[in-house]
Amino acid sequence: MSADWLATLAAAGAGGLVSAATTDAWQTTRDRFVHLLGRGDPERARAAAGRLDALRAAATGTDGDRARAQARLAWRVRLQDLLEEHPEAAAELQAAVAAFAPPERGGATYRQYGRAEGHGRVIMNQHGDQSVRVERAEPDGA
Q: What are the domain boundaries of the chain?
């Protein structure tokens, strides 16, 4: 696997992990990452559990947005280090990333297209009221 792909996987893992820290899916995610990071060593698993608990506390604390941004950076490095030491962990991390809930949409997205030709007009409105009054001049001789 290429270094770029592993870096991308680590970034996706870090982003999903930090996002999950504020959700009801945290315990399942935590358990999965304790197993991933522990690599079968009880001492490593305890250390991972402690780091993950600290992540949860930071992500749900009063400085949430800033703490989550810092945590994403730290966990990306931590996961990249894991993948460098244990390349066989890539498949397990990839499965963990696939198990994350899709990110919630921040809001509705609207796309509008308008086209006028010749002397035509395009009048568009996204939200709210719009009134258009077009007065036509009477033809000569009327």
A: 3-99
